[in-house]
Write a structure and sequence with these properties.
The protein is α/β, with parallel strands linked by helices. It has helices spanning about 35-45, 60-70, 75-90, 95-105, 115-125, 165-170, 190-195, 200-205, 230-255, 275-305, 315-334; strands spanning about 5-10, 15, 25, 55, 140-145, 150-155, 180-185, 185-190, 210-215, 260. The strands form two sheets. Strands 3, 4, 5, 6, 7, 8, 9 and 10 form an eight-stranded mixed β-sheet that branches.
Length: about 325
């Protein structure tokens, strides 16, 4: 489904061209649960719904980058699935949290090991270090990161000379695994810190309709919120939820429809655990099929309402008078 540019008539009767209609796929962060997005993307492709823009944060940026690199096509989606399969089989995201944390906290130790490991992995899988945004042949790609030096979001891709691999890694830089990355613009970490479901960045790039593949899944605490880590987790969750609410409201105020697809998985998954990848792709696919069916039903109901004949005020007043007269006649007969 491609949204087409429209032309409208101005007040003086001359045609006026409005901005092109752009459908954006917005891909949130979510670590290994990003495999849910892969299944949803397959369902969208099978339904012949094609994006003009891809906007991603963190793992969503990586998924989006592969589709922009290899195309929003059967081949592009298969390549993306292969990347996930290879990551699940290998030691891509090491679970040695203690060692990674020690490297982060102790002065003098550089935590570049996992960064170089990730860089080499993506290079082997089709995104080489020299690839720039202007080299991409798929939909427009934009990647969101957080600049902690200037305290602001950064949207990579606005500059066509940006390096795709560096921007991907910056958007997914979550210490202690991946350290902050230095750019000319500042120091970057995971884009989820500023826009985990990047609706606002999509609006800035001209999106007129958005399908958001949202992995955010807050869970009620299963025990009393006690201790620093438990409190910190709930504070971050609250802030993230507020970010999403504000960006949804911004889209509403601008008149841009957002179809928020909340992709859920019953089990909790650790950041480094890729063993659920195949199940997650399947669940994402089935969840998207459900959302697609709901959207199709809503379109049918809207079309049915629009096909109803419109009655004039005179017709409505006549009907009201006939109904009232019939009621009075029945009353007087009694």
């Amino acid at each position: 489904m491609s949204l087409l540019a429209k032309r409208i008539a101005s007040q003086d009767g001359r045609p006026e061209e409005v901005r092109p209609q752009k459908l954006a796929f917005v891909l949130s962060g979510g670590g290994p649960r990003g495999a849910l997005q892969v299944g949803a993307l397959r369902a969208l492709f099978e339904a012949d719904i094609h994006p003009d823009i891809l906007v991603g944060t963190s793992i969503g940026a990586i998924n989006a980058a592969y589709l922009a690199r290899f195309g929003y096509s059967e081949e592009g989606i298969e390549r993306l699935i292969q990347v996930w399969d290879d990551a699940a089989r290998g030691d891509f995201a090491p679970g040695d949290f203690a060692r990674a944390m020690i490297r982060t906290l102790l002065p003098g130790l550089k935590n570049q090991g996992y960064l170089e490991q990730a860089r080499a992995f993506y290079a082997r899988h089709g995104i080489p270090p020299g690839l720039r945004f202007r080299d991409l042949t798929g939909p427009e790609l934009y990647i969101v990161a957080a600049d902690i030096h200037h305290h602001r979001p950064i949207i990579f891709g606005e500059n066509p000379d940006d390096l795709v691999l560096d921007c991907m890694l910056a958007s997914a830089a979550i210490p202690p695994w991946l350290p902050p990355m230095e750019f000319e613009q500042g120091v970057m970490i995971d884009g989820g810190a500023v826009s985990d479901v990047p609706i606002e960045p999509a609006l800035k790039q001209g999106a007129t309709e958005i399908i958001a593949l949202d992995l955010f899944h807050p869970r009620p605490p299963d025990r009393p919120i006690q201790g620093f880590l438990a409190i910190l987790d709930q504070v971050i969750t609250t802030m993230e939820n507020r970010h999403i609410e504000l960006e949804l409201e911004l889209a509403r105020l601008q008149g841009v429809p957002v179809h928020r697809w909340q992709l859920r998985y019953d089990q909790r998954i650790a950041f480094w655990d890729l063993s659920h990848t195949h199940n997650l792709i399947h669940v994402g696919y089935e969840t998207a099929k459900t959302y697609l069916a709901e959207m199709a039903q809503a379109r049918r109901e809207q079309a049915s309402r629009e096909d109803l004949p419109t009655r004039s005020w005179g017709d409505q007043l006549t009907e009201l008078w006939m109904t009232t007269r019939a009621q009075w006649r029945r009353l007087f007969r009694k």
